[in-house]
Amino acid sequence: MIGRQNNIALVEDDPDIAELIILHLKKSSYEVTAFPDGASFMHFLETEVPALVLLDLLLPDIDGLEICKIMRKREMLAAVPVLIVTAKSLEMDKVLGLELGADDYLTKPFSPKELVARVKALLRRKAPVEQPVQRIEVGGVMTLDLFRHELTVRGRRVELTFTEFKIFELLAAKKGWVFSREKILNHLWGEGKAVIDRTIDVHIRHLRTKLGSDAQFIKNIRGVGYKVED
User: Fold this and answer.
1) CATH code of the domain in which 116 resides
2) Pick from 126, 158, 177: which residue ends a domain?
3) What CATH number has the domain bearing residue 224?
4) 217 with 230: CB under 8 angstroms?
5) Which of 2, 28, 109, 141 is deepest in the core (most CB within 10 A)?
6) pLDDT value at position 124?
7) Residues 8 and 118 both lie in one domain
8) Is-contact 136 143, C-beta < 8 A?
């Protein structure tokens, strides 16, 4: 599989919306490969790994949520940020999208400036940065490799989405510190983003499921937030 740092995959069946998104992303110097349906996008994923995926849910052939599920099950695609862009605006739709591995959720109609800002935020979080600490140990059984962006639990690699990894990294880097949902949201998306607090609960629940019995190291401080303890 081949990956290009600035290549964004857009899966959108409405040509007018697709044209609008492409226009604004190209103005920000991003490459965009557009797909009008799920089948053509899935074929693309056989040979390419995009830097980020903008995914509509209401596609003419494959449900967008099913595409998200498939991506999260494939090792080469599990960490690719997915931003759902859809007309489905109910909170239950947003929660379901996050449950299935999406990193962010934007409802139509949307501001093109906000969409570009969210794309930049997701790619900025994905970009490798020099860090004074390469690894974080938790409980003597888990290792977060910040350079490789990998989590190993008892010698077994655990696949996390990009957002799950960043949340765990934040908590594990300062063990014992309690982070409110608002602080975690600001760390991920910055202040002023229209993201519901429940987003964090969804990602934490996903993370705990993947950790299994070792989820005990993530503590929920009722009414306050979350922390990691050895």
Assistant:
1) 3.40.50.2300
2) 126
3) 1.10.10.10
4) yes
5) 141
6) 83
7) yes
8) yes
Distance CA 148, CA 145 (A): 6
| Half-sphere CA count of 127, side-chain side, radius 13 A | 10
Q: Which of 160, 161, 167 shows the shortest CA–CA distance to 188?
A: 167
**What average pLDDT does this structure show over 59-65?**
93
- Strands 135-138 and 104-107, how do they pair? unpaired
**Measured between alpha carbons, how far is residue 15 from residues 37, 58, 103, 187 in Å?**
11, 14, 24, 34
pLDDT of residue 190 exceeding 90? no
Contact 131, 120 (CB under 8 A): no
- Same-domain pairing of 41 and 116: yes
Q: How many domains does the chain have?
A: 2
Beta 225-228 vs 150-153: how paired, if at all? unpaired
Phi, psi of 36 (to 5 degrees): -85, -5
Q: Which residue range forms the structural domain that includes residue 121?
A: 2-126
Which of residues 126, 155, 174 is at a domain's end? 126
pTM: 0.63
pLDDT digits (tens, 9 = 90+) for 97-148: 888 888 999 999 999 999 999 999 898 877 654 445 688 999 999 999 988 8
Q: What is the pLDDT of residue 197?
A: 67
117 and 211 co-located in one domain: no
DSSP-based helix, strand, coil % in the chain, nearest 5? 40, 25, 35
Position of tokens 């880097």? Answer: 173
